[in-house]
Design brief:
It is built from 14 helices and 11 strands. The radius of gyration is 24 Å and the shape is elongated. It has helices at residues 3-11, 21-50, 55-77, 124-131, 154-167, 173-185, 202-210, 213-239, 242-248, 256-264, 269-278, 288-304, 307-310, 312-318, and strands at 13-15, 82-85, 104-108, 111-118, 134-135, 138-139, 146-148, 186-187, 191-192, 195-196, 328-330. With 335 residues, it is of the alpha+beta class. Strands 2-3-4-7-8 form a 5-stranded mixed β-sheet. Strand 9 and strand 10 form a beta hairpin.
Amino acid sequence: MKSNQTNTLKKSIDICPIWSMEATDKVGKMIEQIEQGNALLRAVSEKWQDNKNKVAIQGGFAAETWHAESFNLDAILKDKNVRAFTDNFKGNHGLSKNNAVHDIVVMDGNQQILTAQSKYCGTAKATSDAFRSKKGGDFKYADNDVFLGPSDQLNGIKEYAQHKIDKSQHRDPVVIEGATHVKNKASDRLAVDGVESTALSKKEAEHLGRGSKTGQEMHKEMQQGYLNKSTVQQSVKAAKNAAMITTVIAGTINCIEYIQKAQSGQISSDEAIQAILKNTVIAAGDSALKAGVATASVSTAAQYLPNLFTGTVFQQSFAAGSVGGAAVCAVDLVQ
C-alpha cells in the first residue's frame, strides 16, 4: 500500500468498531460453501489433467458443482434454509454416489423438494436428446423436476424439443412424451423458493472443468459477488440510513498490516489470525456508522483469512465475546 494511502487510512482510525454477529455468521456459512466448491472443482480439473480428451465430461461435473454452490450461496444471502447437493457435497441429502437418475437434489432440512438432471453436451440438439434418453423402454429422467443445461443452449434445447413434438404428432407418443418433458423442464439454473443458482454456458463449464485461469477467475468472481452482496446487505441493515451507506461500504480493517505480513511470508496465517484476535472485539454498540464500517470489514477479512470465520478459535473467542481490548480499524471513507 502506498504511503499516502496509508496516511489517509490512519487519519480515519476509529476505535472499537462493531463486527455484526449476523454478518460474521453469514460470511462463515458462505466460506464453508466456497471452500467445498473449490476443493471439488480442483478434484475435477485434476481428473481432466489425467485424460485431456474428456473435457466435455469434466465440464459437466464442474457445472453440477457450480450450480449447487451458487444456489447455496444465494440461499445463505437470502436467509433461506434450502440447500442444493451433488453426490459429492457434504450433508444429509440421501443422494447415492453416481446416482443414475438425479445429479442434484435440493433439500429443505430432511425434505427433498427438487431434483435435477444436468447435461452439458456439445450442442443444443445433443443436450436435448440426452435428456430424452430411455432405459428399458422407459424415459430415464422422467422423475426429475429440472433439466439443467448450458445457458447458451437453453433456447435451442426447447426449440428442438418442440420440433420433435411437431414431427412426431400421431406417430410416436413416447417421443412426444420425452420431448414434452424436455420442453417444460429445461432450465439454465436451479430455482426454488426465490433462490437461484448462477447460469453457466457450455464454454464456461469447460473452463471450470479444466481448471484454466479463466475458469478460476470466473469461479472466484462468482463467489466474491455473493460475499460482496452480503456485505452490502449487512451494511445497509447496520447503517439504517441511506445517506451513510455509500460511506460505510468501503470500510477496511487496520489489521490489514497483519494480512499483508502473512501474504509476504513475514508471519504465518495463524500468527496473523492471533494478532487480529488480540486486537479485535465484538461488542454491542449504538453507532450506526461504526456498525456499518465493521460489517463491511468482514468481507475484507474473509477474502484473505477465511479461517478466521470458520475455525474453532473464532467460535470460542469471538462468539463467546471473550476477546478483550479495543479494536482499532483504519477506514478509508469514500463516496
